[in-house]
Amino acid sequence: xxxxxxxxxxxxxxxxxxxxxxxxxxxxxxxxxxxxxxxxxxxxxxxxxxxxxxxxxxxxxxxxxxxxxxxxxxxxxxxxxxxxxxxxxxxxxxxxxxxxxxxxxxxxxxxxxxxxxxxxxxxxxxxxxxxxxxxxxxxxxxxxxxxxxxxxxxxxxxxxxxxxxxxxxxxxxxxxxxxxxxxxxxxxxxxxxxxxxxxxxxxxxxxxxxxxxxxxxxxxxxxxxxxxxxxxxxxxxxxxxxxxxxxxxxxxxxxxxxxxxxxxxxxxxxxxxxxxxxxxxxxxxxxxxxxxxxxxxxxxxxxxxxxxxxxxxxxxxxxxxxxxxxxxxxxxxxxxxxxxxxxxxxxxxxxxxxxxxxxxxxxxxxxxxxxxxxxxxxxxxxxxxxxxxxxxxxxxxxxxxxxxxxxxxxxxxxxxxxxxxxxxxxxxxxxxxxxxxxxxxxxxxxxxxxxxxxxxxxxxxxxxxxxxxxxxxxxxxxxxxxxxxxxxxxxxxxxxxxxxxxxxxxxxxxxxxxxxxxxxxxxxxxxxxxxxxxxxxxxxxxxxxxxxxxxxxxxxxxxxxxxxxxxxxxxxx
Length: 573
Hints:
Helix content is 15%, strand content 41%. The chain has 6 helices and 37 strands. 34% of the residues are buried. It is elongated, with a radius of gyration of 33 Å.
């Protein structure tokens, strides 16, 4: 009996062990299923799976919210969340939240990512519509940076309209700069992969197969295109002059006020329809260049004017993050006039445009006024400056007797179009700069430079140089002018001077009459192209020239603020 009982007990024990093993295996499989496939994973784990993610994968992600952003875009408001993770994962991954929900730092958040194939400039990138980074986040950053860069030349492009046939942008001028449309050209380029650009690391050229990292890689290549590799992007249309039609009809320029100038209010029409597919994104570069600019053909950035618009074209037209607009200079200031009283002037500056997303109270705006003086060309120093609030109504500097007052034309207490700033006590010909800071936005809002009694000057002055050639008792001095500038017109401020060791022989003489001086030394100016501007190829002829005498010839512009000299000594060859 004892033997049989032991046999039964032994058999029961064996079955229990088997059952327990089966239970453990089932539990382990369920745990493995939950752990590897069903449970939400962290941001770090998602980044670790990068190379394994493929089109069609569905992955749940969860974590604690570490940052909340609300972006106002041309595609509506987007709530963007950052979840706790490693520094790398946090910088690369952001998630789309629900606009109707209020999120707090530290809240638990979970979402399901549905990975799909997108086409970016005909290259594939795997991402999920529930992810904001790394793809669209980088493209939006590029767009905002290039928009800020454009404001260096006092211009921005405001999206007016987008439809099934194309895009329309309006030029927003930040001061009263203007340029003849005949001297500006326009290029429309399609972003392409920078195969031949030596600055692209081999790892970027070879690409990446990870769902997350391939977006970062393509965005990095796009950043290189946007910032340094324009010339390798395909030019799909070109306007040799804004006064003429483009070569392929993809871009149109409209001189809104028919004044023949590129200025505030003019528009561009780009005849490229939306992609029409949420999975397809394209990018373009619209670049306007003035004389002397060659940013697409080399590294010469010294010229009169350039501005660029970076366009992210998506299924419903251009995608832009409007929330970034407050980093731009969005108060347009224009010089109106000067009135003289007892030998000093009052300059009147008008607010001609305000593009802040909300109205700004002028008592929340500060100003800075700088009065410049130069001992010699290219040697500036600030003779005086002072700042204050526009709400001070009148601020007077006792040392210089300069005062500034704000004129709220419609008495609504806001800084808006039609308001004026009046600065009095200024000397004629003085260079002055006024800047206004709507500090509620935390950024410079607008500025303008002008010359008292003369007005605002557009663009940058060219660096003029000379070539000297002696022919017996004649000396020929050829003028090298890199690009056209309105201030080089003969009836403006360009002046000619000639001096020797004894002093000035000719001082601040206009070039309009050609024959500048007669006597022992005759000076003749030849306007070689007859355009009434000091321009490349024009030249001076000095007759009766003797090499034993040292002469210094100079050209000055803007009341001798810019001075260009050449020495005609006996050592010249």
